[in-house]
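User: For my dataset I need records formatted as: sequence, then structure tokens, nothing else. Please produce one.
Assistant:
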Amino acid sequence: MKEKVDPKSYGLPPRTVLIRMGPEKFSLVISRKSRIIMKDALIILKKVEKINEKVPNASVVLETSAPVCSKSIKFLNEKGIDVVLI
């Protein structure tokens, strides 16, 4: 049950790709070629916090085609955000 959700309804920027995979399960999709670094991980964390304001206890997965630095993966995993390379 994957359905694309309007990110503005969660207070996110309109270019954010957000997919609802279940009642409390979301996927943030980042499709780009440049590496995801710690600065990007902090932005991703803020987006997840905005989703959690609307849907408490929501689990969010980051799906990306970009390489992710090891510090960012560790940081996001500590915050409860799984990173899936597509």
